[in-house]
Design a protein that fits this description.
The structure holds two protein chains of two kinds. By secondary structure, chain A is mainly β. In chain A, 0% of the residues lie in helices and 52% in strands. The model of chain A has no long low-confidence stretch (mean pLDDT 93). By secondary structure, chain B is mostly beta strands. Chain B starts with 8 loop residues before the first strand and ends with a strand. Chain B has no helices and nine strands. Chains A and B meet through strand 5, strand 9 and strand 10 of A and strand 4 of B.
């Protein structure tokens, strides 16, 4: 079974631009979560989508948004990029059951650099 | 949400057993203890999960005492490829994953 895939793997943008990242979950998985990882803040939860609806949300500004399509693929968008948005963006997919027993499988991430 | 505390870093040598202890004093009744492993520039990888007592899989063992206020991840006979960051999480029924700082394990030859 193919794992979680993320595109692109690397991205360079300038301040003020916007960016869209894509995540394809494992076949059969209905939940997709997004995380931001930086050296200073570590791994932080952005949001989770399940059956095309946002089910959970972290403490990030409205510039960060996402969506999920009927085939469970998900996109994350960041508008008006800031230097501090430079990070590794990770996507994780799972079956979507109770978090306590629902193993999340992470993709390789998209490395975003904002200049 | 269960807040977890674990050592920032640990060193070991190849072939040794490594035990990483995680403290989670305020763990909720329905929280499971879950461990992830992360290599540089990769996403975290699920290692093992347990509720209480002992759980073992092909990669590691997880020991959780009766009071569940701590847990210990045991990696038998580590190799250089086990050098990574290890995260301990308390995961409840409705919680998203909250990653702490993790433990950076360095294995030397």
């Amino acid at each position: 079974k193919a794992g979680v895939t993320q595109t692109p793997r690397y991205l360079i943008k300038t301040r003020g631009q916007q960016v869209t990242l894509s995540c394809s979950p494992i076949s059969g998985h209905r939940s997709v979560s997004w995380y931001q990882q930086t050296p200073g803040q570590g791994l932080q939860f952005l949001f989770e989508y399940f059956s095309e609806t946002q089910r959970n949300k972290g403490n990030f500004p409205g510039r960060f948004s996402g969506r999920q399509f009927s085939n469970s693929r998900s996109e994350m968008n960041v508008s008006t990029l800031e230097l501090g948005d430079s990070a590794l963006y990770l996507c994780a997919s799972s079956l979507g059951g109770a978090a306590s027993t629902d193993t999340q499988y992470f993709g390789p991430g998209t490395r975003l650099t904002v200049l | 949400l269960a807040k977890t505390t674990q050592p920032i870093s640990m060193d070991s040598y190849e072939g040794q057993e490594v035990n990483i202890t995680c403290s989670h004093n305020n763990i909720a009744t329905n929280d499971y203890i879950t461990w992830y492993q992360q290599f540089p520039s990769q996403g975290p990888r699920f290692i093992i999960q347990g509720y209480k007592t002992k759980v073992t899989n092909e990669v590691a063992s997880l020991f959780i005492p009766a009071d569940r206020k701590s847990s210990t991840l045991s990696l038998p006979r580590v190799s250089l490829s086990d050098t990574a960051v290890y995260y301990c999480l308390g995961v409840g029924n409705t919680d998203k994953l909250i990653f702490g700082t993790g433990t950076r394990l360095q294995v030397f030859p």
